[in-house]
Write a structure and sequence with these properties.
5 strands, 20 helices, DNA polymerase, domain 1, single chain
Length: 412
């Protein structure tokens, strides 16, 4: 028996360190005076091609979702950092944009706050949505910069308090970098869309975003209080509801994120304890911090009002929904609908795989559930197409899925 030399397995090669993206020209001062805005508008209007655009909010610090910084870049005019708080609105900037295409990343995050300051696009290109249509594994801006440009993009100030004034220079550099590469990214992403035959689909998706005004208002938003599942009685739920609305009113008035006024954990704790006197509330552990104690009377008024409600005005333990029940309950409630859901999901997944798409970008999960739970009376492709169109599907989606979904809805 011979001793064979032991096989040496080389160490895995370390991940290459990508060069860090940097500014291509010096950082310009923040535009916060009428003269500076007029100069920025003049320069931008003289530029060429589409406009890269981004906005920074102060989520986690402020109640409002207003923009606290607007970043603009255009070929021939460079980058501009504009303080929208310094002006009544930015209508003048919108006039400088004209009908030029906007390039945004994750447009639904920024369109509402930009509209709030008078900026509305005539056409747009969303690099994140384009990445989804290309079925890229990661579609964040930093991931796209790595994928297409082979560079790393710093994101350490994404959760900063952008309502801070003056804004620190490192934050401003970070903000400028967010639009630094959007012009170049658009061209590279568009080339891939064209090569994949998806540029027409993307245009339909982008055009649909032009009417986006924000997410739909939630019914009973207080029910999203963290750990509300620990609440067992309807009376305690009423206290959660009353405290949530009291906190929301204070937060809106002071433009402070609600969790900084009274954390969700404190709301749940107070609903569980249900203190019946102001002194008992004052001694409660949730009131040890100076912040919540400032609004002691508001909390007690809310608790007192909830404790005084008649039984028939107490909230139910579960939120009533007009849509179908959770899919896990379908087998018991309606086995036929449960079987339809399995068939439709399989059909949508197959079409998505065939066209290299995320299934949710082909047909939204809620729409799939709605069709399976309560399909139209007529299960022909035309009726399904009409139903899809009424629920917001675009033409390219309808053409791909209407007939297969119609067939899947028919009981075999």
């Amino acid at each position: 028996m011979t001793n064979e030399p032991e096989e040496i397995i080389p160490d895995e090669a370390p991940e290459p360190v990508l060069p860090r993206l940097g500014l291509r020209e010096p950082l310009t001062p923040v535009v916060d005076t009428e003269d500076a805005l007029a100069r920025a508008c003049a320069e931008i209007s003289l530029g060429e091609g589409p406009i890269a655009l981004d906005a920074e909010r102060a989520s986690g610090y402020r109640y409002s979702q207003r923009a606290y910084l607007v970043q603009v870049r255009r070929e021939g005019s460079g980058s501009w950092l504009i303080d929208p708080i310094a002006f009544p609105d930015l209508t003048e900037l919108g006039l400088a944009f004209g009908d030029a295409e906007w390039i945004l990343h994750a447009a639904t995050q920024d369109l509402p706050c930009l509209a709030e300051v008078g900026l509305r696009p005539a056409s747009l290109f969303d690099t994140e949505l384009a990445g989804r249509l290309l079925n890229l594994p990661r579609v964040g801006l930093a991931a796209l910069v790595e994928h297409y440009l082979g560079m790393s993009l710093a994101k350490e100030f994404s959760a900063a308090d952008w309502s801070t004034r003056p804004l620190p220079e490192p934050w401003l550099e970070y903000a400028a970098l967010d639009v630094e590469v959007l012009l170049e990214l658009r061209e590279l992403v568009l080339a891939d869309l064209v090569a994949a035959g998806k540029d027409g689909w993307a245009r339909e998706e982008f055009d649909a975003l032009l009417s986006f005004t924000g997410p739909p208002e939630r019914k009973d938003p207080w029910r999203r209080t963290s750990s509300i599942h620990k609440i067992r009685s309807r009376r305690s739920l009423a206290i959660v509801r009353a405290l949530w609305h009291a906190r929301d009113a204070i937060a809106a008035d002071r433009d402070v994120t609600p969790g900084r006024i009274l954390p969700d954990a404190s709301i749940v704790a107070l609903a569980t304890q249900a203190p019946t006197s102001l002194s008992a509330l004052k001694d409660d552990p949730t009131m040890r911090r100076r912040g919540p104690r400032r609004f002691l009377d508001d909390w007690f008024t809310a608790i007192e009002s909830a404790l005084g409600l008649p039984e028939d005005e107490l909230p139910t333990s579960g939120q009533r929904s007009e849509g179908p029940p959770p899919p896990r309950a379908w087998a018991d409630k309606d086995p036929v609908a449960a079987a339809r859901l399995v068939r439709v999901r399989a059909v949508v997944a197959g079409i998505a795989e065939e066209h290299n798409l995320p299934a949710e970008n082909l047909v939204g999960p809620a729409l799939v559930r709605g069709l399976a739970w309560q399909p139209p009376a007529d299960l022909d492709p035309e009726s399904i197409a009409a139903e899809l169109r009424e629920r917001g599907s675009r033409n390219w989606q309808i053409e791909l899925v209407a007939a297969p979904i119609a067939a899947a809805l028919v009981d075999p």
